[in-house]
Amino acid sequence: MALLFGAAMATVLLGLLAADAVWHEVRHTRRSLAYLAWEAAGSTAAALAVNILLLRAFELWARVVLFFLIAAFLFLAAAYLTVESWRRAKIRRFDAPMQDLRRRLGEAQEAFDRLTWEIQRLEREKRVEPRAQADPEENWRRIVQGWESAPGLARIRSLKTHEWREEARALDDLKLEARRRELAGELAAARDPARRDQVEAQLAIVELERVRRRSPRESQAAEAAESPLEAAKRRRDELEQEVRRIQVELRELMRQREAVLRERVLLD
Fold first, then answer.
1. What is the C-alpha to C-alpha distance for residues 154 and 189, in angstroms, rounded to an integer?
2. Would the pTM of this model clear 0.85, i.e. be above it?
3. What's the pLDDT score for residue 223?
């Protein structure tokens, strides 16, 4: 008897929860109400069939009570399944884009890691390469590479040297010469080692730009020789930006999905 009473109470509790979900967790439209009306009619017809076919031995009052209980149970079960399926179908519009973003994020992170290892290998090879000749151009290039590849600062300094190169290329010959003299003066006056190294790297970039303008063919050959490392660094920077962009898009989709789940979903 206690077991039957417990089962009945559990059924009532589940029915109340289902009723709450059907009416309060979503916003109904004419379309959704029409679906519920059809399910109510179907539940009533099913309860009536059960009452006629299986409950003839019961007294009339018991058959009436059981009819309403069965109809209510069938309706709440069908309505809850319909509403929950409808609700989750509206949420699924976020799932496919989120899955695609997670896949792209994983691929970009793997490519970023591979490029990081490749850049480290190329930098090690450059450090151990024997210097065939100590010409001024090679010396300036070595200064830039040494400053650029500082541990922990390589990416930031690579962006900085790229910015300095663009600034030097934008100057005409007279302004470039004036900039060279200005940096040479700053280098002579600098006392802080970090500041001195930075000014020396800036001066080296200006000197390399002057050499490039004097002998464009030789400069292009030198840039082509550096291209694997420079291209790898540029590609890694692009991948880092792509990873951040994908993470922002993914967080935004997750925020929208959570917002939809917190609110009453419109069953349109």
1. 26
2. no
3. 53
